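Worked Example 4.2. Consider the chain below.
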Amino acid sequence: QVQLVESGGGLVQAGVSLRLSCAPSGRTFGPYAMGWFRQTPGKEREFVAGITWSGASTSYADSVKGRFTISRDNADNTVYLQMNSLKPEDTATYYCAARLLVISRSPNEYDYWGQGTQVTVSS
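Applying the procedure from the previous section yields the following structure tokens:
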């Protein structure tokens, strides 16, 4: 099995930056595309960013384009989400997820999930 552990969340003020990390463990046979999703109470889990296993291709939600950057460290398989210019609307629990093949924007298409890390952005 693949286990994903997110970290890096916190309480910050609008305009600052955070860097989330997703550290996989266990069997990580590729090619795994990785995605970041976020969810707030009462709302559906929404796609934020995705990256192929090789890191050659990325995808972003329109709401975070130009502000967030997804990347991965091929040495240890850690996936990052650099979040700049944070807005209160970015407040959510952020989850990383893994799936085979290509990036998907649908949470239903991902097989492995982390426990989530809370990001709270104050105005």
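The first strand starts at residue 2 and ends at 7. The radius of gyration is 13 Å. Compare this with Example 4.1 before moving on.
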